[in-house]
Design a protein that fits this description.
Blueprint: H1 2-20, H2 38-51, E1 55-60, E2 64-71, E3 77-79, E4 83-98, E5 101-103, E6 106-107, E7 114-116, E8 118-120, E9 123-128, E10 132-135, E11 141-157
Antiparallel strand pairs: 1-2, 2-11, 3-7, 4-9, 4-10, 4-11, 5-8, 6-7
Length: 162
Amino acid sequence: MKLLICLGISLSLLSTALSAQTAGAPLAPTDRAVDFSLAEMEQAARYLAEQDIATRRLLEGGVFSVNVRHLEGAETALQHGRITEVWVVQSGSGILATGGTIINPVAGAGPGDLSGSGIEGGVEREIKEGDLVFIPTGLPHGIKQSDSITYLNIRFEARDPD
């Protein structure tokens, strides 16, 4: 009986933790469009900077999400096994590294997900306000350096090949 109670509590805590990652993000409707004004995007970016939070989810769609991200400094090198990303830089700039190999890789939560201390042998370039970046599934990437950068981050789950 104690085992069942502990299991129930553990599942409840796990469910709460997982839902907290998208708490407050409305589900994407299937019957209408959703607009986010520039003022709403700027408000989300200010909130992230003030609260020292990297990501705020604006819309949750199951296989996709729409997020605002704000970073100061560097970001961990990442590789997503099932996620493709599109970034639209809203303000600031940073040095983006893509490709190459993740240094000191650590497995992430999903299949093929990795994080690490950096990227070796990748391509580095500055990204700035107005730039659009496409990051395909499986490509190592990360902001290597930034004083401050805010970008719209649209994430799509990869489809299985037919």
